[in-house]
Amino acid sequence: MNIFRLAGDMTHLLSILVLLLKIYATKSCSGVSRKTQELYAIVFLARYLDLFTDFISVYNTFMKIVFIASSLAIVWCIRVHPMVKRSYDKDLDTFRHYLLVAASFLLALFLHEKFTFLEIFWAFSIYLEAVAILPQLVLLQRSGNVDNLTGQYVFFLGAYRGLYILNWIYRYLTEPRFTRWIACVSGVVQTALYADFFYYYFISWKNNSKLKLPA
Amino acid sequence: NDDGDVKDEL
């Protein structure tokens, strides 16, 4: 474990806590893409299939459970909870996210570290996570003004994988046989998808103005 | 798993 990866995991956890706060405090999921939340639930379920078979550390197991439980809880909230469900922007959240699932799985069938069930699902989860934010970014562009908590949620979610890139550089430099090309390339693509969001987020922070993504 | 590339990251 290095400082970059710990900071990345904490930033990821923070993004989830901010989203939970937003939904709990405002009893609303306006501006939140249910599809992105569903994709993230699939990402965690596919990536942590080894939850009960490979024990890495208490921290690792604990965080995996937190990520799986929180992502399922958020999807449940948006789909089932009557107050929250009513505020879901159904006609704005129209990204065909099942195409992202299909494309990621197809890519994982061809590009993986080993042709085993766990490795293919792990690669699938890596590719899917890289594009999982797309429905959310599209929704933000369509919904015009973005409330602070939703903006912070997306910012921390994008920042965590950026910190992971620093972690991979650090591990590549310090560990002789460390290579994680699939995660690394995917992580760079994932972070790059946030580039314009980060730009407008920085502008709104600098001018102390409302975050607004151009349509 | 036993071989080198244990998935130790989240």
What key attributes describe this structure?
heterodimer; A: 215 residues; 72% helix; globular; B: 10 residues
Give a count of the beta strands of chain A, DSSP E runs of length 2 or more: 0
Helix/strand-derived category of chain B reads little secondary structure
Give the beta-strand count of chain B. Answer: 0
| Unreliable spans of chain B | none
Whole-number average pLDDT of chain B?
Answer: 71
Keywords (chain A): Endoplasmic reticulum, ER-Golgi transport, Membrane, Protein transport, Receptor, Signal, Transmembrane, Transmembrane helix, Transport
Family (chain A): Belongs to the ERD2 family.
Protein name (chain A): ER lumen protein-retaining receptor
Transmembrane segments (chain A): 58-78, 98-115, 121-141, 153-173, 179-202
Q: What report would you give on this structure?
A:
The complex is a heterodimer of chains A (215) and B (10). By secondary structure, chain A is mostly helical. Chain A has one domain. Chain A has ten helices and no strands. Chain A starts with a helix and ends in a 9-residue tail after the last helix. In chain A, 37% of the residues are buried. In chain B, 0% of the residues lie in helices and 0% in strands. Chain B is elongated.
Summarize the structure.
The complex is a heterodimer of chains A (215) and B (10). Chain A has 10 helices and no strands.
SSE blueprint:
The complex is a heterodimer of chains A (215) and B (10).
Chain A: H1 3-26, H2 34-47, H3 58-79, H4 82-86, H5 97-110, H6 117-131, H7 134-142, H8 148-174, H9 181-192, H10 195-206
Chain B: no helix or strand
